Structures are given as structure tokens and as C-alpha cells.
């Protein structure tokens, strides 16, 4: 497999180029239904999310029903049909973080960003999600912003943390 995508390509390519690349990816995966999840991962890396026109393209190219494609996307929470923010904030609500105030962190972030969990700010800067255990239980509560983990967070620290991404 020669096509490697590790980050969102959405800002650097035209729509036409993205669909051409997706076509190549599908060819590389030999249009096999068993490879649908990998193809969807790559498609999300190319487009940033999986809108209906991308789903239709995949279904047509792979010669499988659209309902199969949309069913897989709906089943796995890591696939999104809405545009995601440049930065995804994941608040840990695993047991250690929950008991040490994870819920208050979610509430404060909702206030600061003006969005609910699962939503993205209008400027497409931040998406807000919750998750179960980020692997920093000893220093709970923790949040992740893209690949970076912040430990021993409290609601008063959040504006300063987000300021780093402005
Ligand atoms: S429960 Fe939050 S890091 Fe483990």
C-alpha cells in the first residue's frame, strides 16, 4: 500500500483532486468490501469528514449499496458526516476524571465555545467531544486537544489552554 495519509488534506487540495485521490485509494484497496473501514478512514483523512457525496462516490466505485456505506459510518463514532474543527477537544469522562470534576470541565468548555458536545464552532476551529479514559488517570482530570493531553485540568485553566490554539 503506497498511499499514506496521516492528517486532514482538506485545505490543500481542490474537490476534484480529492475525489481523484479517493478513486486511487479505492483502487489500491481493490474495491473489496472487507476494506471498507480502511477506505472510509482514508476518505475522512482526505475530506476531513464524510458528506453524502463522498459516501455516494464510495458506494458507486465499490459497487455496493449506499446503505452499506452509511451504515458503517453511523456505527463507528470515529467517522463524522459533519465538518470537524481544526482542533478536536476530547474531555475525559472516565471514572477517575469524572469524580475529579470532568463534568465541570465539559460545562465550562460548552460555555466558552458556545457549542454542545458533538458540535463544532462556526469558525471550524474547535469540535467538542467526550471520551472514556485518555490514559492519564493518575493526573485526572484530563483533556486531549488533537494529539496533546492536558492533565490536572480545572475549569479556570481552560481559557488559557484554548488561547494557545487561537
Ligand atoms: S479516566 Fe480520565 S484519564 Fe483515565
Summarize the structure.
With 166 residues, the protein is an alpha+beta fold. Helix content is 42%, strand content 11%. Strand 3 and strand 4 (148-150) form a beta hairpin.
Secondary-structure element sequence? Answer: HHHHEHHEEEH
Look at the structure and give the CATH class of the largest domain. Alpha Beta
Strand order, sheet with most strands: 2-1-3-4
C-alpha end-to-end distance: 37 Å
Please identify the structural class as seen in this structure: alpha+beta
Cα shape: elongated
Which spans of ≥5 residues are poorly predicted at pLDDT below 50?
A: none
Please outline the major beta sheet.
4 strands, mixed
What fraction of residues sit in β-strands? 5-15%
> What's the tally of helices?
7
Judging by the overall fold, what is the CATH architecture of the largest domain?
3-Layer(aba) Sandwich
Q: How confident overall, as mean pLDDT? A: 91
Bound molecules: FE2/S2 (inorganic) cluster
The CATH homologous superfamily name of the largest domain equals: Glutaredoxin
Structure summary, number of beta strands: 4
Q: How many domains, in number, for the residues?
A: 2
Which fold name is given in CATH as the topology of the largest domain?
A: Glutaredoxin
